[in-house]
Design a protein that fits this description.
Largest sheet: 10 strands, mixed
CATH class: Alpha Beta
CATH architecture: Alpha-Beta Complex
Distance between the termini: 42 Å
Order of helices and strands: HEHEHEEHEHEHHEHHHHEEEH
Strand order of the largest sheet: 4-3-2-1-5-6-7-10-8-9
Shape: globular
Number of domains: 1
Oligomer: single chain
Amino acid sequence: MKINRRSFLQTSAALALGGLPAPLPAAPSSTSPLPVILATDIGDDIDDSWALGFLLQCPELTPRLVMTEYGKSFYRAKILAKFLQTTGHAQVPVAVGPDAEPRGQGPLAAWVKDYDLASYPGRVHTDGVGALIAAIMDSPRPVTLICIGPMPNIAAALEREPRLVRHARFVGMEGSVRLGYDASKTPCAEWNVRANPAAARKGLSADWDVTITPLDTCGLVTLEGARYQRILRARNPVASTVVENYRVWSQANHAAARAAERSTVLFDTVAVYLAFARHLCKMERLRLRVTDDGLTVLDNHAKKMEVATAWKNLDGFRDLLTARLCGGA
């Protein structure tokens, strides 16, 4: 049976829930957070909601824009806007990607059923690609673009404004190098790449600094036990909104019975972490090429990128993720 990220998450939910710019510093000072843009296909898999919550709780990062990726534009934009407004971050602009395939809604439709995007107190950009370009090109500092979905809009932005690569670096949840889903020893076509290999190829081969977390690392992250219970008990708006999203998502996926026990695999949270630090991961500088069927394969002629290929301290990351979501350091 073929598996992609979406089918894997649904299965695990049922089980578990029931000229290159100079590289940016790995960890900014606490007084100088990095400007970041989040490109996300939020509203399909639930890990995007966890990643957005994590981002909002990281003082090392300042979100300058959140952009919908991979179709379902207004559905995703409503989720982003309601999440930001609910958690007290409505100053962050929302960029709506093109109304492209896929269309429709997803498992968080019930959560935004009555939400009016026009009521969002912050700015909503209907030309998401243009807003992405402007946010990068107008920034006085290089921007970190965190991509946690397929990349058609990023590819479109690079096509429209090739100079983006001089003003930004790319950090993404992309690919599979030595491990596949569920820690399989066989690499596979990871969903964010497989969904649009041409766009992934353009984004990962562009002349900017690239750092990725493939399934080798991000595919191992779950929260359960005391860590997960701590998040359920947290009373800060971010943790509460993440949990609310998770419960709605799990109900839509007919897997609500064990929602009190653990998370699904939180792939996207690792990309947020790599935007400001990497000491918990083993990093390798590898040349990776995207194939037409969505594999990320080693190729001596491909672009070099920083790849988190293994964990030095996975429990340390779980502790960090838990603490941040609960409002701690």
